[in-house]
UniProtKB/TrEMBL annotation:
Synthesizes alpha-1,4-glucan chains using ADP-glucose. One of its GO terms (biological process) is glycogen biosynthetic process. This is Glycogen synthase. It is an enzyme of class 2 (transferase). Pfam families: Glyco_transf_5 (PF08323), Glycos_transf_1 (PF00534). The gene is glgA. Keywords: Glycogen biosynthesis, Glycosyltransferase, Transferase. It catalyses: [(1->4)-alpha-D-glucosyl](n) + ADP-alpha-D-glucose = [(1->4)-alpha-D-glucosyl](n+1) + ADP + H(+). One of its GO terms (molecular function) is alpha-1,4-glucan glucosyltransferase (UDP-glucose donor) activity. It comes from Parapedobacter indicus.
Amino acid sequence: MPSEPKHIIHLSAECYPVAKVGGLGDVLGSLPKYLQRAGLRTWVVMPWYNKPFVQQREFEQVYTGSFQQGSRPLEVQVYKEKEDVLGFGLYLIKIPGLLDREEPYGYTDESEQFMAFQHAFLHWITETGITPDVVHCHDHHTGLIPFLMYHCERFADLRHVPTVGTVHNGQYQGWMDWNKAILLPPFDTWKWGLLDWSGVINPLGALIKCCSVFTTVSEGYLDELMTQANGLERLFAMERAKGVGIVNGIDTTIWDPAGDAMLPYHYRIANVQSGKRKNKEFLSKAYGLDPEKPLLAFIGRFAGEKGADLLPEIIENLLDDAAVYLTIMVLGSGNPQVQASIAYLAERYPGKLGAYIGYQEELSHRIYAAADFLLMPSRVEPCGLNQLYSMRYGTIPVVRSTGGLKDTVSDIDVQNGYGITFLDANTADAAEAIRRALSLYADNQRMQQLRKHIMKLDFSWDKSAAKYMEIYQNITNKL
């Protein structure tokens, strides 16, 4: 008889469309689906959030229980989405007062929030006898799981289960003072050093130390973590032998200009020029822009790591130059100062700059379809998905060459290059790259050739999922 598909459980704070703040949510909404299609039994387990998806779907309660977190008794319910509409098993852990909130992040008790999530997960699966073949942990929010599995007597039944840890962004590590250790389930205190880094409990550091294999979301980012990891550089260098860089993919069934339900006009490679033109006209009308001009876009969080603080000066310098022929569209939120500056500039340059402060999924799709160029002046970019989305829609990326951007975008000045890159995250280099983009736009024949070329590039999850399956096979010796 054929064996059962191997069981992989992904643990994450985000999963699109349940709850998404950034690329982590996109990855967890896509990778498990591709693994399930490839024959693995795949679950995603995440906190319960009071979000539209949760309110609109039907869930069944599959577990109820309780445990102590320090001196605090916690009640736990686990819910499963009944129809597997995402293409994999989705489980939500609800704890009144901790895991029943509107948003994933931003609360003063975030350490207790994610510690309870991890404790509840292990309590649930050990009480019910669920034994996965691999537990796959994503970022610091789930970083304590391997330590708890391997060094807590309560979870001894899981000590043989291999774990994978994926670093989506090494800048965020979940630091907490050692006085929080009392909230952990009883563990082998001789192993306290596995939790510690520089005198505090560091969940991301614990993940790297304790997991069977760790991955990063691009090959280039794995190398960069040796020199730029917010204090964990030495740890990543020490553990390099069990690290693997795998570039994120995109879900090409969702991100497809030929069938994207969020677009007013669909198009394919054969009619990319006319299709993008119609979408640009639609977006330009909504924001009072001139569709005759090239359109440069920025989509993302207004955060220092994204280089968003450079945006106001870049925009001002470009739009103050009468010789520069372009319009700009910005979609994002975050740093209040950047938000205020972008809003002010949108009023100052009507007809030249359109802005939406916040995030709207539908608008992001429409911008990718309408824009000629996408700007990503990132200081840190572990993988980057925006440049992959943009290329799928025939929009040429203008990116700082770092991390995953360096792995996925090659400059037009090198053989077979298809994007525009620059070296340093500053306004001068970014502005020069944008001027190069405008020169490219003036060469219509080359522009259209590049549009068609980038739309043919394969950044789907198929290749990346195969690499994760190889990792699972190597650490289980069963697949």
